[in-house]
What does this fold into?
Amino acid sequence: MDSSAIHGKRNLIINGDMAVAQRATSYAVTTDGAYGSLDRFAFYNSNDGAFTVSQDTTVPSGEGFLKSMKFDCTTADSSIAAGQYATCFQNIEGLNHSVLGYGAAGAKTITISFWAKSNLTGPFCYSIRNSAVDRSFVKEFSLATANTWERISFSIAGDTTGTWLTTTGIGARHMIALSMGSTFHGTNNTWQAGNKTATSNQVNFLSSTDNELYVTGWQVEIGSTASPYEHRTYVDTLNNCFRYFYRLRKTNAYGEFCTIRTYSGDDGTGIIYFPQPMRVQPTLTIDKTVNSTNFAYSLNSISIAASDVNVTQVGIAAASSSGTAFTTGGGATIQSNGASGAIDVSFDFSSEL
It folds into this structure.
């Protein structure tokens, strides 16, 4: 059997092939620590420049990938101040990271691998941090040839000290630095105390608006050898992403989100079930204003019912500005208002790390 076809669930990175982008296929990174495009990947951004992240179809030939993550510098910052930075990272949940046994004798060696391509050559930096941000490992990696896909791989011995969560919290943060100020510079290729995410050799991705970087096939696995990327089915990857973020989206007229029991003329409650158990009880964000323009029954409030929420379902409370919108003791649906045509509405449930 071709080893590249083996599905062993060995990769601790979720969506490493950049297949899933529930929120958007393109995102201008403006908020520090925000998620905005490809699932499970977040971004730190504090500098005088700007960059966008997008799901792209540029991929290494013959490796089975359909998508990559593209970074594009849109506003240059030629001089990164000491406390400034730009990075991409994924938080690995403690329940998944616990298999590595960090923080004790016998901590396992891991191998990180990914494909990368950029017009920039020279050293970038990869780092690992714990949730307390007091243990770090920095590893330089170089892209030798401009505008050419290269597979990067290196091994890191497990950290036998420090506190590494084995709960639903952050087990470890794996990060690729784009630009990094001196406050966060550390020593290459060693475990160290503190919040260190790059060395002084790190390239400045924000130096020019001509700069682009592509990444795909991001893998973190136990052992000292980089195995072929573990390709999973799209549904497999999507279900893993649902643990941290679930977008319930309706794009049609009168798109229905859930049925509710109406216990008065203007109030009702219902249940939305998640396709996978979420990491913790989620928060809800609705991307449209809750009013009579966007929702039927003249709804003016939709929220999570605090007494009826867990990791598998969420109670939804809806209220109308009309005292006679509902029939007391009857039923209705939370739905978009299609009187003027289709409305694109999303309910975003997040339990991101």
Q: What stands out?
A: The chain has two domains: 3-242, 245-350. The first helix runs from residue 94 to 97. Residues 1-7 have pLDDT under 50 and may be disordered. The domain at 3-242 is CATH 2.60.120.260 (Jelly Rolls).
